[in-house]
Amino acid sequence: MSTFFETFGSRNNFSTFEAFKNIGDLAKPIQQHLIKVYTTLAFLCLLTAAGSYAHITGLFLFGGGLLSFLIGLASLIVIAVLPDIPDNKNLRYGLLFNFAFMEGLSIGPLVDHAFHINSSGQLVLMATTFTTLIFGSFTLSSLLSNKRIFIYLGGILASAISMLFWMSFINAFMGSRLLFTAELYLGLFVFCGYVIYDTQLIIYRATYGSRDVVRHTLDLFIDLIGIFVRILYILIKNSEDKENRRRSSRRSNRRTQQYAGY
Predict the structure, then answer these.
(1) Which residues cross the membrane (predicted)?
(2) What's this model's pTM, rounded to 2 decimal places?
């Protein structure tokens, strides 16, 4: 998300008024920049899948957990601090790829849990499909819009992220299932909004000379992972609730049969 880089990274002094102007059709250099961004994004998804696979199969030295999260976070911070200059290009790409792999390790336990619930991988496949459709739809709607009117969403989305953080913090002590569910769905909507916002912001910045492929790809990658994780959580939750209802119904039927035998 762009909010992280606005805090830690270099700032571009773009006029808010200019953000609402009609930029018009995308110029060829911007199209080429977007091709690089989405090609890199696709490769990051493969690395994330490899990271999750490494956790599930135990191929890596350590599985997903606190260590992989901290290593990924360190990579994220270093990327934000390093300026986008030719001398740092290979290092920044390496850190980006490392972050994607560590992200895969970090969500590995969740993916593994989904496979335990449904060994055929149906839940993971559904989450991947829904994520692709949602991300693709919001990306296209943003790319096809001539006016970058969605840039104004930045403040609203940042406030929503802050609210999600406090909801998660409070729920860590309360353990409310209702609050957790609300956090899941609200977070899903927020990250969908970030897809539109970040896409238009990338186009806007590229129009004014910022062609930082690493930073722009990372913004979209965080949005994509945020959507995938929440969709998978929702599918797992629904599947577990359905299974619990089945078990409850079976126990109820057994009791009814026992009473009928007296």
Answers:
(1) 35-53, 60-81, 93-111, 123-143, 149-166, 178-197
(2) 0.82
